[in-house]
Amino acid sequence: MERYDLIVIGAGPSGLSAGIEAAKAGASVIIFDENEKPGGQLFKQIHKFFGSKEHRAKVRGFNIGYQLLKEADEAGAKVQLSATVLGIYQDKEVVVKIKEGIKHFKADSIIVATGAAENMVPFEGWTLPGVIGAGAAQTMLNLHGILPGKKVLMLGSGNVGLVVSYQLKQCGCDVVALVDAAPRIGGYGVHAAKISRMGIPFYLPYTIKKVEGTDHVTGVTIAKLDPSFKFIEGTEMHFDVDTVCVAVGLSPMSQLLKMAGCKMEDNPRKGGQVPIIDEHGQTSIPGIFAAGDVSGIEEASSAMIEGRQAGIYAANYLGYIEDELMKEKEDELDKALDGLRQGMFAPSNRGKKIEKTEEGIDISNNLLAKGFVADEEIERFPGVVHKLGIHPVMECTQNIPCNPCQDACPKKCIKIGSKITSLPAVDESVDCIGCGMCVASCPGQAIFLVNENVGEGMAEITLPYEIYPLPEVGEKGIALSRAGHPLCIAEVIKVRTGLAFDKTAVLTIRVPKEFAMKARFYKNEKLAKSV
Predict the structure, then answer these.
(1) Residue at which a domain ends, from 300, 319, 341
(2) What pTM value is reported for the model?
């Protein structure tokens, strides 16, 4: 039997972070994960993270995964892959299936960071091949390079459904619609907006009535719901698809904690059955801690901080960190975690309909219902200004914890202030140099550079672009509106890439000046002449 000071179960963002902190304190640490690759969800998250520098904002998920693996190696934490933990037994004995063998391990402390599993919702045809979880689709795309299908309907408008829909589109899939039974889009508005401007429609409150096919998916019928969540006859819509992705939330994978004898509770606000933990993440069994989604569903950024906290608490329990140092580190991490738990999407606001921003501005109802801010709504937000010459236009309209644009601008044209959830505003006393750093750094792709009049009745718009192959300078295509509707012919003036942009191209298009504040996406279209 092998012995360690600490066993961590789960090598995702929370587990790796926990193992790193405990190992840095001097504990002997082994981290088990049932997968062939470590990093959990991080390595399939190709998008840039929100938050601030301390939350690794504007860094892509898989790069964060590489950073954590390097830190774990440097700290001396051992990562054992293809290792399925079968159970936690008396005196913190852990039984693990490693490949084809069974091994026993013992530790003085255990951190369970097993994450969460996708929920599924039953409907007629839900067991057909081609009905898959959105996370499974993301794994196929970003880890294995396999398209889950060619024509896809997404059920669910939370952040997972929104992000995966965008990534499906990046990979060449035709996403025919996003459908949600709720009356409002559940994820970040900036995620919804970048999907809408690509021409993908939202249908709310709709859900799936039937998936068609015999041995695989060939189509899907959706219908509108009344306030009691019953189908409204005559509202059915049919789509020819070969894939249906389901993104209807996550449930904590807390079975090991229950098996170990930890006291549990059913807590819908945390996603399901979770362990009862104290202020240090310790369960009812001394020395067993829970961290990340297994103790309550949140974003990966929060899971990493919770993991670091768990590692510090475990190290203190083991005697490697004194109480005073633990408290110092705890305060620092609490501050970082509090920063992520503010704004419209804070845990305390789940299920609430927010009417106004923190600045007192009316929320965009069109964004919540259709996925884009209407032309008549956009001008009321502080990031949208009119100015001579090139200037930033920031269509960030919800209070979410994110501020990399403020740090990215070398001239300090953009101001957010000390509160991370404040809406970005333009400092009109400062001249923009058009470098594009703010455009590329925005995780929500909500920043544009606009020159409303470059002469001869034309305007230029610089926008983020992540669809490959990239357009070529001089080509002409279609400028699309926030709703994804064709507006006009657009000419590509400039295409910029570089290490600083981290795979987000910065594309400048020229359009008639009446579309300067309306054109928000470029479509390479051979039939542009017909628009």
Answers:
(1) 341
(2) 0.92
